[in-house]
Amino acid sequence: MEVDFGGQGEIAFERRGYAGLVRLTRPASLNALTHGMIKALRRALIAWEADPQVACVIVEGEGRAFCAGGDVVAAFNAGRNGSPPYEFFSDEYRLNAHIDRYSKPYIAFLDGIVMGGGAGISVHGSHRVVTENTLFAMPEVGIGFFPDVGGSAFLPHLPGHFGAYLALTGNRIRQGDCLGSGIATHAIPAAEIQRIRSRLVDTGDVEATFANMADMPGPDFETGAQTRELIAQSFCELTLEACIAALSKKAQAGSETAQDILAILESRSPTSLHVTFRQIAEGRALKMDDCMRMEYRILNRMLEGHDFYEGVRVALIDKGSTPQWKPARHEEIAPGDIDAYFAPLPQGNPQGDPKGELTLP
């Protein structure tokens, strides 16, 4: 039975058997999240959490993507028109926090591209299932932004400083890396999704369904052991400068991997790198709600700055040119410049947006 929670034409909801089914239906846009989709999904989760007949929630995407992120072009246009989309992000962050504390099993089938906002509506749930089609990334630093949607809550806890590496480079990984690092809880062939979904719908027994998969061999890391060791040794440093110095030392010793990572970091917004490095460091000691409040503070400053708009312009609007970051060099960034991104927000309205601190239930 289809259920109307809003977001028509962009996200579909169905109540079938013991499951609440969610399908993102913007395949031409790689299921990029709009504000309407975010609000509709939150309404569905609230309703199904209170419904004793719903044993679990299953989230999927149409086409070749689960969800490639938030609609950053819409955010770009809104900001350029003088109305930065604070409410879009505050609602998105509340949704991420809600998924993290959701009282029922929340199963995301990550069959395809998963980036940014797509991670936000999946990695905080109880079951994250990858396939041979999964392509995962937190690519925000590439557009002068930062890995938000709870990136500060899960990236710091990946083993071997793998999360810091993903955050600072924006590099893409496949199913083996997702499973090995803990981003995913299970890996299956894509052909198995229908069978598993049907079992969940018919029985509502999530524990038994996934227990039957326990003997299914998982894929190995695609990132080799030597590269993972280099990442662990370089991204463990206490400052971004020390991290870059460690990579430089390995590059000078002949490591092509270190050279490649350095080339990526050199192309990124210096401000984004510094903010992201500190975000990951601080997030390690914070609970999810506090991470979301911190990210909302950063978000406000990013929307008031330069590099996000420059990054989106180059990557998605004009395409092909080289971004002109401001500041352009790490040496031009003072510690106080980065402190400002993490400072408390001024008093806003009671809902925590557009300018005040993010409010969470």
UniProtKB/TrEMBL annotation:
Residues 340-361 are annotated as: Disordered. Its EC number is 3.1.2.4. It catalyses: 3-hydroxy-2-methylpropanoyl-CoA + H2O = 3-hydroxy-2-methylpropanoate + CoA + H(+). InterPro entries: ClpP/crotonase-like_dom_sf (IPR029045), ECH_dom (IPR045004), HIBYL-CoA-H (IPR032259). The keyword ATP-binding does not apply. One of its GO terms (molecular function) is isomerase activity. The keyword Hydrolase applies. It holds the Pfam family ECH_2. Residues 20-342 form the Enoyl-CoA hydratase/isomerase domain. GO terms for biological process: L-valine catabolic process. Keywords: Hydrolase, Isomerase. PANTHER family: 3-HYDROXYISOBUTYRYL-COA HYDROLASE, MITOCHONDRIAL (PTHR43176:SF3), 3-HYDROXYISOBUTYRYL-COA HYDROLASE-RELATED (PTHR43176). This is 3-hydroxyisobutyryl-CoA hydrolase. It comes from Phyllobacterium salinisoli. The lineage of its organism: Bacteria, Pseudomonadati, Pseudomonadota, Alphaproteobacteria, Hyphomicrobiales.
